[in-house]
Design goal:
Helices cover 44% and strands 21% of the residues. By secondary structure, it is an alpha+beta fold. It is elongated and about 65 Å long. The protein starts with a strand and ends in an 11-residue tail after the last helix.
Length: 265
Amino acid sequence: MAKVSGVKVENSGLTRGLTVMSAIADSRTPMRFADLQTALDLPKATLHRLLASLQLEGMVRFDEGNQTYRIGYRLLEMANTAWKQSDVREIAQPLMTELAELTNESVQLAVLVDLNAVYVSQVESNQSVRYTVSVGDKSPIYCSGVGKAMLAHMPEQQQAELIDRIEFKRYTQQTITSPVVLQRQLREVIKRGYAFDTEEHQHGIRCVAAAIVNNSGMPVAAISVTGPTFRVTDSDFEDWGRRVTKSAATIAQRLQPETIMSVEV
């Protein structure tokens, strides 16, 4: 029996449930019941009960088609809530406001959740026609500025594993649908310092984004400036790139050393 801050902790159902969730989350592919049982060495009845409870709470999803388990959306929602309360959001807010005022466009803050960039904060433009998102909205990592900015700074092996899992879907004529092209763009992001999205996820929208990298070299979030295509010139793009890169670096400098890397579900 272990102790945490002087409190005795037994091998409770909660602990076993978290162990099951961790096994599913750590697997590169959805897991079958037999795989889980082998990995965790739990009795069938116990594992069935734990999985049923986790499904009921939305922490685990079961795919009837291929009889596999994967992490549920409820955990993603909880991760988003945690990020809304995190230091990076508070530290980024004044710099996001400054960027919005300088560019006269909307500014977003996003974190990485599995294969998506999830928006956790925004400062809207005052323009009558403007780009806007809601907290919790997500964009695929391969066709969004914030997604590519974070992906570019991932360790090589982790980056390759994520790209290998992407199911490339075409949203517009500009959408990247090739892992080779994506990897080439990611190398350019590192050289340039920022990523961009030129109508790759949504028609009529362009954005520039830079990763917020902690002192371990890991991306914890990304910040972007986004506006309608008809108003964004190439000169704007270059100017935004310099500004957003500088803002991301300032946020990174102000982060506490213990700030963790992007949420991965």
